[in-house]
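Q: What would this chain look like folded?
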Amino acid sequence: MGNADKEQVKPPEDLAQPAQFLVPREASGLRLDVFLARVMPQHSRSRLQDLIKQGFVRLNGKSSRSKESVRTGDAVEVEEPPIRSSQYRPEDIALNILYEDDDLLVLNKPPGLVVHPGAGNSEHTLVNALLHHCSTLSGIGGEERPGIVHRLDKDTSGCLVVAKNDETHRSLSTQFAGRSVDKVYLALVFGQLRKKTGVIEAAIARHPVHRARMTAATSRGRAAKTEYRVVAESADASLVECRIHSGRTHQVRVHLLHLGHPVLGDKTYAGKRAGNFPRQMLHAWKLGFTHPRSGERKTLEAPPPDDFEAARNTLGL
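A: My prediction, written as structure tokens:
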């Protein structure tokens, strides 16, 4: 791999100053990672735990552990680690770009494309495609996830926004964490829903036995909210529009299963009700956010892919 391939993710000219916080009385007793998740919502809790583990967080001037409790008046300092060039190879993979400027791009992700490298997926991912397409990407997501602000499952298609610089990444992450991003999905589901509109509010947690799955059938977990509306229905299936007000793992799939109407083609959650479909019939249809630089509200719409439309036609929807 030549040097040109390694220089796709570049550090900013001026590294950001460390963020500093004093612990208020109402936060006394919280775990360090929980406190940071409250004051730095632009970062996921797992990202903050990684920063703590790597020594980029100091509690009263010293390295600490995620589970250590903070006390009133404690000083917490968080430093952004230097950005390393990505080790992953740029690949000329076609991207269906809905919008692009100097700060970000929004694309219509095809089904079957993994978003970022991971175990068993070091090539042929969206990150590989982005490294080929973009001269710079934000580094906040780490070496394996340059530019990646949020993600879609491999077999979910649709709108996905990518940050080209750290300022944009921070702004978009804050919007996602603050639930000011509009996220609308289309799902083909099993059966007819008794109520044609409604709101599902059920906490989502990791399944206690099947660790690759999430569940809403639990008293624990993180709060999650999904609005839904039946768009069309046939004898055996429905087309449902889902607007999500949180960003939990597998949220739409888990909430629709909780309602008794799993997504067709979903081999993880639908079981025998999955039907004969090539993948889970779930599409991230619309994405709305405030542009970090211009302040303009952007709403992008991704046309569903051919397999989704074919399934819809087969079902008479």
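Helices lie at 3-6, 32-39, 45-53, 126-133, 166-177, 251-258, 306-314.
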